[in-house]
Amino acid sequence: MMHFEEEEMTSFSPPFTTENLGEIVQQWYADFITSGVDHSLLTDIIAAANFLSIQPLLKLSVLAMSININGKSPETLRPMFGISNNLNDSEQKARVMKENEWAFEARRQFEENQAQE
């Protein structure tokens, strides 16, 4: 928090021309969200930032996640997110969407905040 007060994170919005986080935001922020941060911890950071309404941290962590999953196949992504199948059954799709409603709400809020900036 102290670093953010001293050097506010660079504002950013898609589309991005690089997957190098250090070229999108200052290197300190890139290191903060990637050094020693695995997929599980990054997922927890996203949830916490969303719950606590810490928009700069939410934006940074979602950006890091999007870079991490960009270009990966469904077969690679399924175990990362604990998905066991393709969800071909509409009942399963509805259940998963309901269970992850918070993620859709977070995305909606993120997009609203982006539009306001």
Automatic annotation (TrEMBL):
Residue ranges annotated for the SKP1 component dimerisation domain, each copy included: 55-103
Pfam families: Skp1
GO BP terms, alphabetized: ubiquitin-dependent protein catabolic process
Source organism superkingdom: Eukaryota
PANTHER family documented for this protein: SKP1
Protein name from the UniProt record: SKP1 component dimerisation domain-containing protein
